[in-house]
Amino acid sequence: MRGPLFYSKILLFGEYGIIKDSKGLSIPYNFYNGALKIDEHHTVGTFKSNQNLRKFTEYLETLQKEQPELVQFDLKKLNKDVEAGLYFDSSIPQGYGVGSSGALVAAIYDKYANRKITVLENLTREKLLELKGIFAAMESFFHGKSSGLDPLNSYLSLPILINSQDNIEPAGIPSQTNEGQRAVFLLDSGSTGETAPMVQIFMNKMKQEGFRNMLKNQFVKHTDACVDDFLKGDVKSLFGNIKQLSKVVLDHFKPMIPEEFHTLWKKGIETNAYYLKLCGSGGGGYMLGFTEDLKRAKAALKGYRLEVVYNF
Q: 190-215: per-residue pLDDT in tens?
């Protein structure tokens, strides 16, 4: 058995802000993917994934009991497959902010949910919100609190525009150009990040009035502007807003940026060779970079691992 592929995702804009109703823009990233498989031989390599799925299945049984109107699964089949050696065969790095648990959640829903909402039907806003709610409840098993966006992106394999928490829609994004010097890239920090502790730090900061004001008046303002600029293709305004966003994150989200990257982050802002922002919750994993001149950014970041996600 081999299930369909589910891709990783990149939240271009909106990390942390979407908790406080900023806009967001999430795109599938097909470089990494995962699929459900059964290893009948129960080899050592698949043991950890199988054990995780066993615990996840128990969680889904509880979820179904507590919220029967939300979602129903074919738990008999899921349990049988877990016993037979079900695992998630994935190239998506864990703890890197590119949606490893989201792809797994999407795969489980796709294979085992009863009366599932499919990609082929007319996806109204209500259906998208229903899916997002189901995925948020499922993914909470991994993160403690989830917006449901990562699995939604992986499940639909479409760019998703988040206007607010209860207003999401598929988005058309400017098409890529191979010869474009402007690029979005991933920068590898070389260490993994844990989502739950980072979200906890953020929630603690939210208790301070000054931080809440900064979030609303600076972080959300620039995030919303970045989303609008990107979708409109207004490059000049986009890079101005990304620079401001990068500054705000460096000033107010320091714990989410690995310490050894503080100087590199600042250097990008000072030289305008590139601008860095968080990719996912931060704390490690990837950082997201934007540049108007890819060659210049590569030269400035020599010795670091860059993966280009999008040329425009």
A: 889 888 889 889 999 999 999 999 99
What is d(CA 22, CA 4) in angstroms, rounded to the nearest whole number? 32
User: What single letter denotes the amino acid at residue 303?
Assistant: G
Write down how long the chain is. Answer: 312
Q: Is 184 helix (H, G, I), strand (E, B) or coil?
A: strand
User: pLDDT digit string (tens) for 205-261?
Assistant: 999 999 999 999 999 999 999 999 999 999 999 999 999 999 999 999 999 999 989
Backbone φ, ψ for residue 108 (5° rounding):
-65, -45
Single pTM value for the model: 0.88
Token pair 């950014």 is found at 297
Nearest Cα to 177, choosing from 37, 310, 26? 310
Report whether 229 contacts 237 (CB < 8 A).
yes
pLDDT band at 37 (very low <50, low <70, confident <90, very high): very high
Which two tokens mark 23?
């806009």
Spatial contact of 140 and 146, defined as CB atoms under 8 Å apart: yes
Closest CA to 150 of 29, 67, 41, 297: 29
| Burial (CB count within 10 angstroms: exposed 0-12, middle 13-18, buried 19+), residue 80 | exposed
Spatial separation of the C-alpha atoms in residues 312 and 229, rounded to whole Å: 13
CA 299 to chain centre: 28
Please give the domain boundaries of the chain with CATH numbers for all domains. Answer: 6-170 (3.30.230), 183-311 (3.30.70.890)
* Cα–Cα distance for residue pair 96/150, rounded to 1 Å: 13
Q: 9-33 as b/e, with b when 16 or more CB fall inside 10 Å?
A: bbbbbbbbbbbebbbbbbbbbeebb
At 242, the amino acid letter reads I
The answer, yes or no, to whether residue 1 has pLDDT greater than 70, is no
Considering only CA atoms, which of 187, 159, 190 is closest in space to residue 291? 187
- Residue-wise pLDDT for 116-139, tens only, equals 999 888 888 899 999 999 999 999
- φ, ψ of residue 118 in degrees (nearest 5): -100, 160
